Amino acid sequence: MATQKVTFxxxxxxxxxxxxxVPPRERSxxxxxxxxxxxxxxxxxxxxxxxxxxxxxxxxxxxxxxxALSDEILEPWDEPASR
Length: 83
Hints:
Oligomer: single chain
Order of helices and strands: HHH
Distance between the termini: 55 Å
Mean pLDDT: 90
Number of helices: 3
Helix content: 55-70%
Number of strands: 0
Radius of gyration: 24 Å
Strand content: under 5%
Largest sheet: none
Structural class: mainly alpha
């Protein structure tokens, strides 16, 4: 697995707690695991929000209206195609 060094700031109290509780040789893995878990949780929340939105009748109506629009992009000087 390719790795990359990063620099970021943490509140002093959090950093103190982190260095006291996580041994030096385990810190990178600990941070990577914590970030992975947090990002997966965020993805799950986003997916759940999409599922809820997709069940909305208002959203379904809007999607039908958008699907009915032409893919053709008209410039202001172009005549709209007859339908």
